Amino acid sequence: MILKTYARVFTTDLAAALPLYQQLVGREPDLQFAFGEWELVALGDLLLIGGTTEALAPIRGSHGPLVVDDLVATQHQLTQAGAVITQPISPTPTGTMLYARHADGTVMEYVQWTPDLVKRIIG
Prior knowledge:
CATH class: Alpha Beta
Strand content: 35-45%
């Protein structure tokens, strides 16, 4: 089951972009962390992803993340529907994630948060 969705905002200057989005959303970030070459900020229903043009290139065409309650069950549902898992379940600073290319070609990131994040952000 999908618990939360995010719209991705890619930027090569996160420090410059963040104040505007904070003002537009009207709150402080829920999460802020580094993951590989990226800096990520979850703010309301936006996920700002900062990095160089080169670092962002591999994920620019993808969507999500979709936060789910059970990533293993979601992976099973995806493969049953003809999706191809392009990045298997892997650890992240917030829990675990995978990437899947759906039968229609859409590339989506799915994330299962740690229980404490689910409780703090979703309730």
